Amino acid sequence: MLGFESSSYPQFLTSSNSVRFPEMDLHQIKQILDLVREHELSEFEIEHDGLRLKIRKEANGAHVVTSPIVGTFYRSSEPGSPAFTEIGASVKKGDVLCIIEAMKLMNEIDSEYDGEVVNIYVENGQPVQYGERLFAIRTR
């Protein structure tokens, strides 16, 4: 996401893949990165003066389960029910990880891996996009 040209100004790629120069300087970005490391955040996003900076830290050695559809993410089958899985839980291939509601249909998302859930990227009830990260699973 961050690159440098010969002029040594930070540059960012926008969704249209065009380059634009942000109002945030390199020192501010370094401060943000230090805070993300210090607080061991797996994901951080900030928007400042039209610049949107998104930082994601991948779980080492883990496989990421992504959303196969656009919809609403639910961690349990109904409100008040226990979540299908938690961070630290063991899962087997085929275990239900969550439900994504799309057009009033409830779609179960199954684990593609045997392993341990090491991260859950989405909060319950939040909308998700196709390809968005949902879980990180460290295989055995």
In short:
With 140 residues, this protein is mainly β. It folds into 2 domains: 55 residues, no CATH class; 78 residues, RNA polymerase II/Efflux pump adaptor protein, barrel-sandwich hybrid domain (OB fold (Dihydrolipoamide Acetyltransferase, E2P), Beta Barrel), CATH 2.40.50.
Indicate the overall shape: globular
The string of secondary-structure elements, in order, is: EEEHEEEEEEEEEE
Low-confidence parts, pLDDT < 50 over ≥5 residues? 1-21
Helix fraction? Answer: under 10%
Main pleated-sheet profile: 4 strands, antiparallel
The CATH superfamily name of the largest domain is RNA polymerase II/Efflux pump adaptor protein, barrel-sandwich hybrid domain
Keywords:
2 domains; 4-stranded antiparallel beta sheet; mainly beta; 140 residues; OB fold (Dihydrolipoamide Acetyltransferase, E2P); disordered N terminus; 13 strands
Summarize the SSE layout with pairings.
Elements: E1 2-4, E2 10-13, E3 19-20, H1 26-38, E4 43-48, E5 51-56, E6 62-66, E7 71-74, E8 90-91, E9 96-102, E10 105-110, E11 115-120, E12 127-128, E13 133-139
Antiparallel strand pairs: 1-2, 2-3, 4-5, 6-13, 7-9, 7-12, 8-11, 9-10, 11-13
